[in-house]
User: What shape does this take?
Amino acid sequence: MTKVDLILSNALIVTMDKNERVIPEGALAITGGSIVAVGPHQEVLEAHNAAEIIDCEGKTMTPGLVNAHTHIPMTLLRGLADDLRLDVWLLGYIMPVEREFVSPSFCQLGSSIACAELIRGGVTCFADMYYFEDSVAEAVAQAGMRAVCSQTVLKFPAPDAASYEDSLASARSFIEKWHSHPLITPSVAPHAPYTCTPEILKACTNLALEYDVPLHTHLAETLAEVEEWREIYDMPVIPWVKKLGLLDAKVIAAHCVHVDDGEIHTLEHAGTGVAHNPSSNLKLASGFAPVVDMLETGLNVGVATDGPSSNNDLDLFEEMRLASFIAKAVTEDPTALPARKVFDMATRMGAKALYLGEQTGSLESGKKADLILIDLNTAHNMPHFDRDSNAIYSRLVYATKGTDVTDVMVDGKWLMRDRSLLTVDVAPLLEEAADYAKRIDSFLVEREGSVLSKLIAIGEAEQEQSYEVQIKVQLPNPEPVIEKINSGEFEIIRTAHYLEYDTYFSFPDPQEGRLRYREDEFVDANGEIYNVRYRLTLTGPAAEREYPKAVFLSRSRFIAPARHSLRFYREYFKPTSAIEINKDRLRWLLRYEGAEFFVNIDRLLEPALEGCFLEIKSRTWSRRDAEIKAEKISALRKALGVEKAKAVRQEYPDLVCN
Ligand SMILES: [Zn+2]
Assistant: This one.
């Protein structure tokens, strides 16, 4: 008789070992946190002398589920902003809120709440990626769960790092601190190719190789990402990261939605673990990962929830069901991705995808005692058919709810008994979470209160209080003016020719001003575009004074480089109207009577108008200077041979807004 700590007896055991043994009346013996025997009830009891025996009659025992990719502190951001496109959601809402609120205590709180949810849903092991991962790991270890905890590295400042060098340094010290922890596998997480640089990806790969820890990242999540890579690098994402050497590390690749056959083989050859996130991919409309092809090729694919902001829960039973149903619908084949295979993905194969296959993922001798007990005798899961050996997997994947999990054990220690959590006291944590939600709400209410604060929230907007002197004249024939400019009478400082694509956003309150998205395509002497510039300008509304022939304006302007698409800004700022004005602009910078003026001759392309517009303008930061220039501007008009200045403000009000 071998002495053991504990025997769990009399359960239906779904082992998920390599033979996928199912033991109708089974028992499992545990010593020192590890499984020492699994087998028929009588056999195990006769061979072992247990300090404690727990009768599990009526329960089904399975390996604890493995959630292959998530961002657990984001439980605190659950439901913050939904039904948005990925970039608007991430850059417009999640990242600004994260910059303001994410701290070690935020991460610890969010992680503890997530652990409660995960344990209740039968998850014993997961792969996380976030900021202040040390605080995440603290909370996870305290809850007694097993996890790969990955410290994020980004090319831009993050809540926990001013620079990429800082975040890489903290990833290193994080790995050193947790390297030999029994439950936590530390790891480094370069967030994604599009949020990193090749240099960052290489540095992270080297760090992962140096400590032999996993490298956790997002790859090929959206079609836009892959198309951008094809355009810039002439290859999709997977061969590109392979070229950088990234796949030499033990990579956990979340998503891999847009990968072709060749790329799947590349990932398989490299031994990359893939995390499939059905809910997240559906919610963000990212597409359908070719999971069936991945499995046929032999990739280790785990099932995952992604963060609770893009899901919005951490229910792995729901993910299993979706993974199977989506695969069937997409391949138009109801035999695709059967329940048994999905359950494998959520247990043994998922553990392999996280490089923890030696420790967890199945119930067999030598592995850690990470297991759950489930009540399958519920109204939504009855009756039971035993004729087909796949029926148990149907019950587990298609009909079981997370709430049917009654008991959870990790490393031989109970985390939940009879649905009572033993390691997380969740009630006070939820009060703290509600308090965060209130503060985040008021932060966003304030920010949404003005176009300017929304502009500042997504990037650096520089304020320039400036005075602008402007005259705008309709010009049926520009040739005489062009001849005049080039006559030698004026000092030409520089000239340019470009196509200007402007979109003006208006808002309900005219005091908000107008937001202009401008794309300038610079055209060379041969008519070829040699440079493109994108800018965003918020222009204040107030025209301080108008001269009969010149418009003298005082405006506050905020200029920011426009890093996102016009579509992004439209969805983010939600203007009441958007007007497009496209022009072909010839521009001169002239010196006239000691002052500099821009002279623009614009041909309107959209709206298409006959003739041209002459615009003479000057911007200055001094009021006195503006007054002087206002006096000179009419003289310059005359000097250019434009006799009659027909004001266009009344006739074309939309054109006088730049
Ligand atoms: Zn993710």
